[in-house]
Amino acid sequence: MESYILPNFPPEYSSIHLCLFQNVTNSASLRTRLVQAATMEGAEGDEARDAMDFGFVEASMVVSREHILTAVYQALQAASSSNLRTKTVHSEVLLALHPSNNIADAIKRFGISPSTTSLLLVRIGSPTKSGSASATQEDVEAYQQTLVDEMAELVEGDMVSLHELSSMSDWKAIKKLYKLHDVALPGTSETEDRRILEATMLNTLAIKSVA
After folding, report:
1. What value does the CA radius of gyration of the chain take, rounded to a whole number of Å?
2. For 91-127, what is each residue's pLDDT tens digit?
3. pTM of the complete model
4. Terminal Cα-to-Cα distance of the chain (whole angstroms)
5. Please, are residues 198 and 67 in contact by the beta-carbon 8 Å criterion?
6. Which ranges form a coiled coil (predicted)?
7. With contact defined as beta carbons under 8 Å apart, do 106 and 56 qualify?
8. What does the longest C-alpha to C-alpha distance in the chain come to?
9. CA 169 to CA 2: how far, in whole Å?
């Protein structure tokens, strides 16, 4: 898991955690739990939503750490300024990844599906469970370990480094969604071509966020 602390955001949005899984086998049940948690009421519903309080991102539609962090940052800006277009900051990440503002399609393209085998979990919240401003570094590290344990228990799959993201990317689907087929490429190497395509994607998301 990778963690980032952003003190320039409100405390409840100042901590970001990213965890990547491959060979996931329980995506269908995770999706069912997400749907059920959204509609359950009372204390049972609160408990269910707390257990599923993550962004469940289809990792095959993400090309790099910069790609997901760009979307997370845009979701944080929306949440901290009370301009969320979706129900939660985690679903806002899915919308921020999409080249348009079509919420339903963003969830379809970037959210977990029954066939998902590579999954990126995003957790946005306070640096500690209590959210206390006086928390020590030990408190922060203890909470991060708790999140790692929760994610590992939640997802049936192999936890891997975020460096593996690029090897999971479905470039055919990504090019189609971001309309990248007409981008001029030097053709000198696959790495250089993909670097240019990624830069074009990030530019599209940046323009969308200020449009």
Report:
1. 17
2. 999 999 999 999 999 999 999 999 999 999 999 998 8
3. 0.91
4. 33
5. yes
6. none
7. no
8. 58
9. 19
